[in-house]
Design goal:
Elements: H1 3-6, H2 8-11, E1 14-16, E2 21-26, E3 35-44, E4 47-53, E5 58-59, E6 62-64, H3 71-83, E7 85-87, E8 92-101, E9 115-127, E10 140-146, H4 148-155, H5 161-173
Length: 184
């Protein structure tokens, strides 16, 4: 059974209205030059870290890559800004939403256009500070590490596919948690 079979909502092509882009998830890693955004499923022990913004949406931390920033630099900065977190272990790439923008110009002038990728990863973290909430980002009002079942429920406030993304992260990043589950 493939990842697409097990996680159909995550793999279903869709349109993200907020950015006017058509997206398709794949576990194939994107080329570095296409990556405009990096987001992470963060594990604090056995719990999953979610950030609640001022719209009452629970989301995974991450955001837009700055000009000249490496993927690792972006991930570390975004974890600090949105979750007050820092990595404590290796980063595991999960896949990406490959996107085609329908807008006339890129979101930021240095970004690829119209094709780009939103990279998803999993990482163990420690929550050791408050989110910094820069002016040009979502306003995070709460960061909490949730038991897996609660994280799966709350993540749906950011889209039905988000629970499947977290489940994929558990499967790939925490394989001992899924002993006996068939691999791809």
């Amino acid at each position: 059974m493939t990842f697409a079979d097990r996680y159909p909502l995550l793999h279903t092509p869709t349109h993200w209205d907020w950015g006017d882009m058509d997206v398709q998830f794949s576990t194939d890693p994107p080329p570095d030059e296409l990556v405009t955004n990096i987001h992470a499923v963060c594990f604090a022990g056995d719990a999953v870290v979610l950030c609640r913004d001022d719209r009452d949406v629970w989301m995974l931390p991450g955001g837009t890559r700055e000009k000249g920033e490496s993927i690792d630099e972006c991930l570390r900065r975004e974890l600090r800004e949105e979750a007050g977190a820092r990595p404590t272990g290796p980063v595991r790439w999960l896949g990406a939403h490959y996107a085609t923008s329908n807008l006339a110009a890129p979101f930021r002038d240095w970004q690829p256009h119209p094709h780009k990728a939103w990279l998803w990863c999993a990482v163990d973290v420690v929550l050791d500070s408050a989110p910094t909430n820069p002016d040009d980002a979502e306003h995070i009002v709460e960061v909490r590490a949730h038991p897996l079942s609660e994280a799966l429920r709350l993540a749906r406030t950011d889209g039905d596919h988000m629970a499947e993304l977290i489940a994929l992260a558990v499967e790939l990043h925490r394989p001992a948690d899924n002993a006996g589950r068939p691999g791809e």
